[in-house]
Amino acid sequence: MIGENFSEFLPLHTMELKNDLFLRAHRGEAIERYPVWLMRQAGRILPEYRAVRAKLSGFKELVETPEFAAEVTIQPVDILDVDAAIIFSDILVVPEAMGLTYQMIEQKGPWFEKTIRTREQLSFLDQEIDVQERLSYVFEALKLTKKELAGRVPLIGFAGAPWTILCYMVEGRGSKTFSESRKLLYTDPDLAHELLSRITDVTIQYLKAQLNAGADALQLFDSWAGILGREQYTEFGLKYISKIVDAIPHVPLTVFSKGAIASLPDLTELNCSTLGLDWNMNVVETRKMVGETKTLQGNLDPCVLYGSQKLVELETIKLLKSFESQRHIVNLGHGVYPDIDPEKVKVFIKTVKNYEI
Ligand code: CP3
Description:
This protein is of the alpha/beta class. The protein has one domain (6-297): TIM Barrel, CATH 3.20.20. The protein is 44% helix and 11% strand. The protein contains 15 helices and nine strands. A seven-stranded parallel β-sheet has the order 1-4-5-6-7-8-9, with helices on both faces. Strands 2-3 form a two-stranded antiparallel sheet. A hairpin with a 3-residue loop joins strand 2 (102-105) and strand 3. Helix 4 (66-79) packs parallel to helix 7 (136-149), helix 8 packs across helix 9 (179-187) and helix 9 (179-187) crosses helix 10. The longest helix has 24 residues, at 189-212. The relative contact order is 0.14. Bound molecules: coproporphyrinogen III. Coproporphyrinogen III (CP3) is lined by residues 39-44, 53, 59, 86, 88-92, 104, 109-110, 158, 174, 221, 223, 335. Residues 39-44, 53, 59, 86, 88-92, 104, 109-110, 158, 174, 221, 223, 335 line the site of coproporphyrinogen III.
């Protein structure tokens, strides 16, 4: 007889999900309502997050301690009632695993002591790294989160897209223009390609390992896609995203290329289930381009959440009404800003959940 305990022996990812709306929407299957979650939902908007964070030495301790990472990953599921959890981590763990350590400086953001701007500086990077070992804390956090979620909602794993990771490795910090990174594309395109290839190889291993550790879906964040024009994004961005998505077929996977409006026709050609739209991308026009071949995720302007509850409700309904297909996952057009009132986020989520499709 197959008893209760049998489930303990099943691989984590075969555990049945109580709410799989998010995965069904990725696959283009029938849904009874649109699923909803928020980019950057695990983070500073929640007082409960800040309480956990305050007990620790800093952001990195939180990222690198699976028990705490799991706790803050699950907080938005408990508190905001979202339809998916995203593992608490950062895109910068990949450059770190490659040999460039970073610090997360309070009020300022990431800072890398070493940067890659010349061929000689490639020696700062370790080759043939053991991804499983170097990023074991992420995989442990995924396993623990999956266990603690007990099938309530799917768990999203993620990575930065190669172009965005290159930007941080070249610049060493955030930037308004990322001109050092764009400069490299003209002064030493071969070096840029070498760096992008190395990031791509590690990212493929990293994402596969996240799936093995229990991630049900994946997202690639290309936060700085929009600083390149269409041709340059094809050469230095999409070429590597294609390699990644082709290496991980048949998995619910979202490519979020923020700002890459000119490249939308190219993005529709990618071998992925879902495209993330920022708030300037037009849902109706993008739907015309993709037809029913892809799910679209997004794209309420995160600043709507600074408005009144009534405004949040009206703008959310306006977005929902613009959908001409069931293949949608509702989200913001970028990460939620840290000073947003969680009550407004709850109105956004409730409005989506109460909307009849
Ligand atoms: O979405 C989630 O809730 C999961 C966690 C997550 C974080 N970062 C936690 C975080 C995710 C998916 C990211 C992705 C990420 N990290 C991106 C891509 C998405 C985007 O926003 O465009 C980028 C560009 C980074 C790099 C990064 N991490 C920067 C530039 C900064 C500093 C600025 C900022 O947003 O705070 C971070 C720090 C960071 N990553 C925080 C969190 C919760 C804040 C750190 C803190 O707790 O003080």
